[in-house]
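pasting for ref
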Amino acid sequence: MNDIVDYFSTIPSLHRGLILVGGIAIFWMIENAFPLFRFNYKKWNHAGINIFFTLTTIIVNFILAFILLLASEWALKNNFGVLEWLPELPLWLYTLIGLLLLDLIGAYLAHLVQHKTRWLWHFHLIHHTDTWVDTTTANRHHPGESVVRFVFTAAAVLITGAPMWLAFLYQSLSVVFSQFNHANISLPEKLDKYISYIIVSPNMHKVHHHYVLPYTDSNYGNIFSIWDRLFGTFLTLPKEKIVYGVDTHMEASENNRLSNLVAIPFQKHRSPQVLPEEKI
């Protein structure tokens, strides 16, 4: 455990980049060998759009990284944050609680707010327009959304009182888990179900990418599935019924053209529909 702390305390930016690229490469190979759905698409062309948004996300996080550092330093210096107020804990328990809280605020809450706030939804919508969800979809975020997500991550670090090694560990795990639960991989049904009791599994997250409400507004978690189950946002749907995309942007000219994807947040709002057969 101490080795993990030491490593993430001084993790080079190159290593963080390799974690991102390595995760995509590994899950890319797995989904090619064991696909959940056999898409009729040009995988490299599709990946090109999503990699563009991956690069913009990296740029945004690189430019704003100093804010994360300031938040962590201020919290530790002023004994501020949930972890600072807890009695001394074993390192493994301290790490687990920290990761749970960072995931709650930096991922679950950030995701929920983007779905419930119209102007934020306009940015997050780009992520949902993907009609071929695979591991590259994990980083399909408009630059505006990347800023919003960073703000929530910084707030999570401040509220939690997380040291930078824990923040870097969380970010690294967040990237890999997102690539995992977006990957177009087929796991045995029972294994996926058992996994979903603890962490967000591929089948669990695929429900979130179903094209109509109420499923689009469910399963917000990224690392831990506990938050969806605890706050009543957990839904299931047989994988055979899943249709990727979002009902307001199902045309290829809108969901698979980079120039339009960048412009979507500034276009007129379109209200999603709840189809009768999709009501709970």
